[in-house]
Specification:
One of its GO terms (biological process) is defense response to virus. By secondary structure, the chain is of the alpha+beta class. Helices cover 21% and strands 30% of the residues. It contains six helices and 16 strands.
């Protein structure tokens, strides 16, 4: 699949960047830079024929491990090491989608433990007295944050976009979103990133595929091999201060899930009750980003 890659230098964030949240930030960027009418036209295009498909972010040079039938391994330590692999290099991914998990047994990710890691850590903040502007005694907060870089801080992350119609605004939009911060707790400095490079490239796909692996969360449907999660999202933009700031929860298949039929999910209505504004609908981006797999 021919795509445009956006390489990102990430700081500490509250969750790894996912396609639905990135798309939500893009929607608010359209709203704040071009107005409400432009946003409604942008949403209408996505409801019927999406101008582009966007993936979640992955370590540059790596893709999510496809959830394929597991290979039998008797050695307990080796089985645990294999189970812990989350990302595959392009070369290993290309073999796995053609040959199955058997190809992982000879991969650098297993034999040399070269797969990148995502570290979950804690970060402590102090409360600020709004009157004096100084630290408030006895007020400490501890947040969970993800550290997505390596020790040398050279590891970048990449978002892939399959562009179907001209979308020259994407790079500028992502740069500005990165300046203000992605996802939760952006107001306290989390979620900032920088677009450090872009690239036209091809993602690996299996010839004559029998199944499809998705690089973005989507709705589970039909047969396949899925990892499911219940998603409780928050509203963004100025709706974050609404009476009910949470979207309607739903069940979705994670990145790496494999489907027999090419997934066809689109936008999902997740408007809470009450809606943040009369006549407003809240949409969640759940288009799959499918790559062909042979099972």
């Amino acid at each position: 699949m021919r795509v445009k890659a956006f390489h990102l230098a990430l700081g500490s964030i509250s969750a790894p960047p996912s396609a639905p949240t990135l798309w939500g930030h893009l929607a608010w960027w359209v709203r704040y830079t071009q107005g409400e009418r432009a946003l409604l036209e942008w949403l209408e295009a996505f409801r019927h024929d999406p101008p582009f498909l966007i993936s979640s972010a992955f370590p540059t040079g790596y893709l999510p491990r496809p959830l394929l039938p597991q290979v039998r391994i008797d050695d307990t330590a080796k089985r645990k090491s294999l189970k812990s692999i989350r990302y595959l290099s392009f070369a290993t991914f290309a073999r796995v989608i053609r040959e199955g998990e058997q190809a992982l047994l000879e991969s650098p990710e297993l034999k040399e433990k070269k797969a990148p890691k995502v570290t979950l850590a804690t970060q402590t903040r102090v409360g600020i007295n709004r009157t004096t502007g100084t630290a408030q005694e006895g007020i400490l907060f501890t947040d969970r944050v993800y550290w997505l870089g390596d020790q040398e801080k050279k590891q970048t992350w990449t978002v892939y976009v399959q562009i179907r119609q001209p979308a020259d605004y994407l790079e500028q939009a992502l740069r500005e979103i990165g300046t203000f911060g992605y996802g939760g707790k952006a107001s306290v400095g989390l979620g900032r990133f920088e677009v450090v490079d872009t690239q036209e490239m091809d993602l690996p796909e299996a010839p004559s595929p029998t199944h499809y692996v998705t690089l973005s969360p989507t709705l589970p449907k039909g047969e396949g091999y899925w990892a499911l999660e219940t998603y409780w999202g928050r509203l963004g933009g100025h709706y974050a201060q609404a009476e009910t700031p949470f979207k309607r929860p739903y069940l979705r298949a994670k990145e790496g899930s494999v489907f027999r039929e090419q997934p066809t999910a689109g936008l999902l209505d997740v408007t809470p009750e009450p809606a943040p504004e009369g006549g407003v609908k809240i949409w969640e981006y759940l288009y799959a980003f499918p790559l062909g797999v042979r099972v």
